[in-house]
Amino acid sequence: MPGNEQLAIDLARMTLGELGELELRKFPDGETYVRIISDVGGKDVYIVCTLAWPDTRFLALTFVAAAIKDLACRRLQLIAPYLAYMRQDRIFRPGEALTSRLFAQQLQQHFDGLITVDPHLHRHASLEEVYDISTRVVHAGPLLAAWIVENVADPIIIGPDAESAQWAEGIARDASAPWAVFNKKRHGDRLVQMAAADLGHLAGRTPVLVDDIISSGATMRVALRLLAAQGLPAAYCLAVHALCGAKTATSLRSHTAAFLTSNTVPNADAALDVAPLIGHELIRASADSSIVAAGLQDGRGCRR
Ligand code: R5P
Question: Does the global pTM surpass 0.90?
């Protein structure tokens, strides 16, 4: 899908797959025209589409998916490096829509499977709780950890809130560094209150803030302020999914030792490439399905 071309090219190259071709354009009235050019009949097809700003992308994505299915592909899967609508994972006030589940219901009507990177799992324990189709999750933590090991001497890994503990702990383990999480309470889309852990005993370490998502930037801004108040050196700020605008990114760049993200959402600070992680997962998935197919053919039964 538009904006995901580089990742699609890289994945096709890594998996020795064929790069599909489609025509997608807007009519003068803003409606979408779709035509699948490649021969997809009988093939395993993967659509690559990050789902940042999903409301502007989703309808065209469903048209493309339906057109591919009409051409009798074997199996259609979505590679969504960023999976949207995972943060409204509970009804907080009566009358709210539980959009994590509603979005899943919409999406899974069009796909046989979903591959994504670090979905925001907080009150939902796993993607299987939300999606009925087959899902595979790729973790970007090792990429962040490898960058930290290369670039930061004596780091301490900080997660800005309780739910970031899952990323902070894994990254700290991979980077052989201590870690801590702060305590955050959200009062509004752009308003968060936070209490810092006391890092006094870790003087001399360089703080590295890690989180899955940066959206308004409020979480990172407040965490940076609390770190500065403890007299620590300028912090590094790393995230998997950059949903923030250019203004927030510029501000984070100027208030940190470095600000960088992965390319699950293409952006100017995307220094960490998730293509090899997703490529490996695709190769693993295709090995698994060959084992299943071989098992079915020779009567051994399948492995999973
Ligand atoms: C939520 O808990 C996530 O892990 C992030 O901390 C949050 O989405 C960041 O949002 P914002 O940048 O708007 O504070």
Answer: yes
